[in-house]
Amino acid sequence: MYNKRATAPTASRPRTRRTRRTRKGWQPPMDPVHHMDQDGEPTNLFGPSIVDETRQAELRAFIKEREEMEELAQQAAAAAAASADASAGFDGMDFDDDFVSTPVGPSSPQLSALDEAASDNDKVGDRPTEDGLDEFEDDFEMQSDIREILGLPPLGPNPETSSYAEKRRSFFGRFRSAKPHLVQGLACYLTSDLLGRTCSRTSCDTPATFKCHTCMATSTTAHIFFCQDHAILHQWNNTCHRLGNNLDKPPPARITKGSVVRNKKIQCCQKAKGGGHLMHLHSLTGIEQVMLVQCDEHYDCTEVVKVLIRDFGFFPSRLQNPTRAFSIQMLALGLKFRSAGVSYQCSAEVFMGDDFKNVRRLNVYEPYMDAVRQYATVMHSAHHGLFTNDIERELGLVMQQFNQEWCLGMDVCPACIGGSSPKGPLAHTMDGFESANKKSVEQGGGGNHGVFEFARAWFKQTVVTDYVRDSSKSKAGKLGCEAQHKAGTEGGSSNGKDVDRIIHVDCAAHGVVHRIYDAKGGERLIYADDVMNWLMTFGRVVIFGYDIACKLLSHWHHYGLWTTLSTAALIILFIPGMHVYAHGKDCQCLFGPRVIMGLGLSMDGEGHERVNATLSRSIGLTQRETTENREMDIVLVVSHHNQGKIRTFAAWTAGKLALASAGLKGLLALTPVVDELKLEESSYKNVVARTTDLRQRLLSTSGTGVASTRESLRERIDAIARTILAVERHLKSAPGTKMAARLKSALSSSFVAFYRLAAEYNDLDPSKPSLNFATVKKELVTTSETMDSNNVKLMVTLYWRHCEDVYHHLNYLQNTIDYFDNRARTYWRKVRGLLDIDGTVGSVILERDRLALLHIVRTRVLVESTYANAARDIFEDSVGIINRDHLKQIGDMFSAHVSYLGGQNMRP
User: Fold this and answer.
1) 700 burial level (CB within 10 Å; 0-12, 13-18, 19+)
2) What is the pLDDT of residues 746-755, one digit of tens each?
3) What pTM does this model have?
4) Residue 14 burial (CB < 10 Å; 0-12/13-18/19+)?
5) Model confidence band, residue 463 (pLDDT cutoffs 50, 70, 90)
């Protein structure tokens, strides 16, 4: 595949020059002949001599001379365009605009121009030495490797303009030509556009003087153009419709015979008579003032507010004597904005601000916030069927039968929680998020004035004993590299904060948040103890990921907790994939997710970091809020995050199963060369035992010897080569223009680092064959021709890791099906029963309201059945990916009371 390296540039073969990209833009290549030290010897192209200040003037002079040379060469090339010699033989190199070159042929006029320019350069330094040519050949080889990975021709002409660029040019060209027509159409839409219009009302031929912009935007069949009389009537019959004439002025108000302006009245019932109090209605299209009228029986405003929501679609900012109400559409958008990280003030200014006053001065900012939060609470109750307090109490008893009363009214992970008989282990991680703090009142933070019940359900209080604070024992001993990490430290300072951070607990596979703690005094180990105590109540195998799992295990051993925990359940601890590299070799062997059996290859445990990234969009806004508002805003973001995970769960799982299936097929394609029965006869138990033994032997030999420089370099070279191969796979997946550009830049940097280390490696022992990318790639990419006994063991282990992935994801699919089926059979059936008009709960609900609530129940059941059916389809398509006996072996290992899986975190 890489035979072209044998024909690297020589004296008889023309060469291309490569440019390097710097912060200042494109610069010409730096010829090795001009990189000399004080003794006149060529320096390493990648060494510190490049940045030596004493060489800068010489380099700038060389750059200027090289630019003149390239200009001469380009002029000569243009003059010899018709020459057959210039058009034959050598092709220019191109690297997607990152590399440019000047084609030079052995008989072309460019050669004489370059030779003439080179004769002047002889005054600066000597001609290229043999070492300089070798370095240049390595540079050429690096470019060839890059081009091969990118799928570019080895040495070809500049690629033609991409189809995407052509489409974009066509797009802008059409837009420029059509822009005048677009401006004209928009002008007619925004203005009254009354020319030739007549009143839309039946039997009225009067010329139209007003246009309803609200009806124009929402309907193509409604009456849009009106005469003045009908415009007044239309505005009276519709709420917050915006009408305007040629001057964009609204029609005059409706008045009585005595010339008194009439206000629309919203009555709680037919008994409501007389006057009331005024209230402003805010919608996306305008503002309108109405009068709320209530009878003596409904003096608390509850009924009139219900009418306002039900019959007019406006939600009040408060229940007692409300003065402002906002349209449901506005509040729904505001809730989505806040869940996505947009502040209340930003969304309020978008909806209701103007160029002269902000929403705070308009006195609508605080009412708008209160309305959004109350709307969120009501929507949450409707989403979970918590229609009345009695129904909520009864549903709590139903959930308690399945040990799920803790998640009543929460969006939890159906794949991990499961139904009445969940399958597989329960995998969770926890992490602290320091930015989610709350300032004390003295430091500008808000107070505590109440609580939103559904938000409080997410925030938990610890219920376990604080062993560190209450015990008289000395500080727990060390394990591995625990002393390097601040997490788990006791007695942290609050520094003027009521809350230092939040600690959230998420399922390890899907990143769905299940618990939140307000932590004060640092990320103390009592929170991990409380999480483990909660996980133990499920009676399942526990996989627990924590950034300081090493310190947590030491803590459990020191206070005698490990014996109790390990006796009650099979426990596997791990450190999430991104954090484990901050630990020492011992911790990586004991807790690394890529070396511990039982986790598969897709569980990296970094879902909590993705939650932090979601929270970070707006978490700064919560630091000075009141306690109840802060909790509400955090829960809104977390709930929105969870719902997105649940909606995309089936597609995500299908992708993970496809990756596992592809990995298994790749391994099975290698087995005929070794022995077709190797994988079939292999035992999961033996593989776990062998892997555990290998890790423990690594621990016992750590620190006993120091790797040689050559071995250390080879490890680094292999790591960079794996990165290059990973980038190659990403580029083949069509990542997009911007991402592809970043990947290509990373690819170029990786190759530079690779060849720098390869040069060091080859210089250590010149007697051995030189190492290049082709050799390293051949060793890293195992094929059927390169299989040996060591590779067989590794491939068998890798096979079982893929099988673990399939095992977990099939269990997740089954749990999802059972979870939603169980909710349909028990949870929602209970809600429907309680809404029965003849029941004790349903008797206080009007028939109109009952039918509406039943419709919501049917809608939620339909949505959840869609999730279950999607999971069922994927499960049926994937159940035959691997041998059922192998799935059974993995299941037996997880269900065994004494299993090799449970001792993987222990030292030998």
Assistant:
1) exposed
2) 888 888 889 8
3) 0.75
4) buried
5) very high
